Structures are given as C-alpha cells and as structure tokens.
Amino acid sequence: MIVDVHYHHIPMLPEEMAPQLAEDLLRMTRILGREGDRRDLANRLLACQDPTGEKLLERMETAGIDFQIICGIDNATSPLLTVELVQLQNRLVGEVAQKNPAKILGLAGVDPRRPQALDMLKQCFEEFGLKGLKYHCDYGFDPAGPESYKLLAYVEEQKGILLSHTGPLHPPARPKYADPMLLADIGVDFPSLRVIAAHMGQCNWRPFASLATMQPQLYGDLAMWSPYALGRFELFCRELRDLIDYAGLEKVLFATDDPIASCVVDTRQWIEVLRSLPDRAPPGVRFSPSEVDAILGGNAARMLGLDRSS
Question: From residue 121, how far is each of 50, 94, 261 by CA, in Å?
Fold first, then answer.
C-alpha cells in the first residue's frame, strides 16, 4: 500500500503567485543537475489547477498511490488570498475528498492570524468535510502561538491531523517560524493530536528526529526529499538511514509535495528509488524491504487507521 501524506490540491492559482512558487522548483532542478527556466516552471504550476480533482485521481492511478492526504494553504498577509478565496479553495478540497473517501483525506488551509480563523476552520470541518489543518508557518507565525492554540484545540477535539511546514524556503518565507522545534509545545499541550512535520525540516532534520523520539504523536514526511533521491542518491541514502536510526522507522512517512514537485520530479521514479533501496543503497548503508514498505505506506496507514489489506 502506498500512502502520500502531502499533496497540495490546487483548485485555482492566482497567476501572480506562480513565479514565487517556481523558485523552489528551480532549486530542485539544480539538485537534479538540470537547467530550469522560471517562466516555464511557473506555467507548469499554473497548469496544475484542478478544481474537480480529475488530475489528482489520474496522478494517483499513474503513480500507483492508494491513499492521499490533500490540503489547501492560507497566508493572511497575502492580499491575493482573501477569506472568500481561501474558503472557496477549502470547499473544493473538501468536495474532492468527500467524493473519494476511500482514497482521499482533506486538510483545510487556515492561517491562525485571521480574526475569523476558528470560524473558518469549523466551517471546513462541519460543512466541507475536511479532517485536519495545514499550516505554512514560514508565512510568519508561530505554530504554537496563542492564535494557533484555539485552532489546535478544535482539531484535537475533532480527532483531526495537523500537517505543518518545517524547513527553509526562499524569501519572503521566514524560516525561523518553520523550525521543527516550534512543534514541541504542541506535543505537550495537545497530547492526542496527530502532527506531521512536513519535510522534517529538510536538511535540518535532526531537531525533528530528536523531538519525534520523545513525542509519540509526532511524525515527519519525505516531501521535498525526492530531488536528492534522484539527483544525489548516496547523500539521500546516508541521510535517510541516519534519520530512521535516530527518529525511529515508524515516524517516517512517504510524501510527494505534488503537483508542485511533479513539475520537475516524476512521482513514479521517486517511488521506484525508495523501492530499490534494499538493492541499490551504497556500501555501508542498508535498508530492508520491510522498512521500505513501512515508509511507503505502512506507517501512514497505521497512523490514519486505514485498512491495509486493500
């Protein structure tokens, strides 16, 4: 079973936002040893718009993904993202998830700095059928700040999930708010809330690993690790092995960051690299088939309570 815990469903994308999102795709192309064109990548991102979820389902079928967590995003400081547009996005994410409950779970994008954030989140759960919350803290807020706690209390009460970005991104992102250690208080004050540290801090994964060993409900995903797997394989293998040994195998979840990442990384190749680890890992680094199966879906299925017999 393959479970992708991090997919950005993009019902619509303001054209002005595409060039900024393309910056990280340029970074990925450099890791892969390729040349990237910002305008071309921005156009690829605009082509990812998918209001009905048809492209999402096609991607899942093509890549062999059995279950997907999809999310919206919100940034209260962006004049492009009005409350009305954010809630339209969240409603469309919810519609896709509700039409495909055996395959898809949806998370709301709500910035806790909005005065009406809690009401927005409640509407997402009660009317749109969403089951959790996505944070992009790098937009400038503390995931464990007082505004956030109101939302987290509700998500925990609803037995939902928090997927919170960790790790640096290009300016104007503010990476100090995306330090994995900022999730520490959440594990103390909301002990039953399942939290996924998106990207595990990327190359700054050790703070995540040290925290995950102590907090049973904290997990991390491999979104944004795919360029290293395809472009710098030995480095990827060494880092992944150390991460597993420090954090524990059960804390590591497969993720794609599609359809953004798939603008430059073939999802099928990303999965195949993971499947090949027992045979291809460099000297001194070993992975077992059971470890790969756990990462690709077993760990997430257990965390989400999915039927793994399918």
Answer: 22, 12, 27
CA angle 274, 279, 283 (to 5 degrees): 105
Q: How far apart are CA 306 and CA 212, in angstroms?
A: 22
**Cα(286)–Cα(237) distance, integer angstroms:** 9
- pLDDT tens-digit profile of 246-289? 999 999 999 999 999 999 999 999 999 999 999 999 999 999 99
DSSP sequence for 24-74: HHHHHHHHTT----HHHHHHHHHTT--TTSHHHHHHHHHHT--EEEEE---
Phi, psi dihedral angles at 197 (to 5 degrees): -80, 100
Cβ atoms of 196 and 229 closer than 8 Å? no
Q: How far apart are CA 219 and CA 215, in angstroms?
A: 9
Task: Tell me the pLDDT tens digit for each residue of 171-180.
Answer: 899 999 999 9
Tokens of 59: 């991607």
For residues 252 and 222, the answer to whether their CB atoms sit within 8 Å is yes
Report the distance separating Cα 224 and Cα 28, nearest Å: 8
**CA–CA separation, 299 vs 253, rounded Å?**
6
The residues near 272 (Cβ < 8 Å, ≥ 6 apart) are none
Helices (H), ranges, the chain: 18-31, 38-46, 54-63, 83-99, 117-126, 146-157, 184-189, 205-212, 226-231, 233-247, 267-275, 277-280, 289-293, 299-304
Note whether 111 and 145 are within 8 A (CB). no
